[in-house]
Amino acid sequence: MLRLSDVFILLAVAASFLVSGFLWFNGYREEGLFTAIWVPSILCFGIYFKVSSMMGRRDE
């Protein structure tokens, strides 16, 4: 089940991906690459917070 925080993380990933593609195809290749590396970083933060919240619920 997707929670609101999951939706925000996925929206941030999608926005970063779209911005990086826009920059890449409009000639700003370095900026596009820099923005593209945000995608896995945002996903890693999302996974971390998801796992930590699941671990918190398990301990209760």
Describe this structure in words.
There is one protein chain. The protein has 60 residues and is mostly helical. The protein contains three helices and no strands. The protein has helices spanning 4-25, 29-36, 38-59. Helix 1 runs antiparallel to helix 2 and helix 1 (4-25) packs antiparallel against helix 3. The longest helix has 22 residues, at 4-25. The radius of gyration is 15 Å and the shape is elongated. The model has no long low-confidence stretch (mean pLDDT 92).
Report the principal-axis shape. elongated
Radius of gyration from CA coordinates: 15 Å
Q: Helix- and strand-based class?
A: mainly alpha
What can be said about the biggest beta sheet? none
SS element count, helices: 3
Termini gap: 20 Å
Beta-strand share of residues: under 5%
Number of strands: 0
Question: Descriptors for this entry?
Answer:
3 helices, mainly alpha
Topology readout:
Layout lengths: L3 H22 L3 H8 L1 H22 L1
Helix pairs in contact: 1-2, 1-3
Short description:
Helix content is 87%, strand content 0%. It has helices spanning 4-25, 29-36, 38-59.
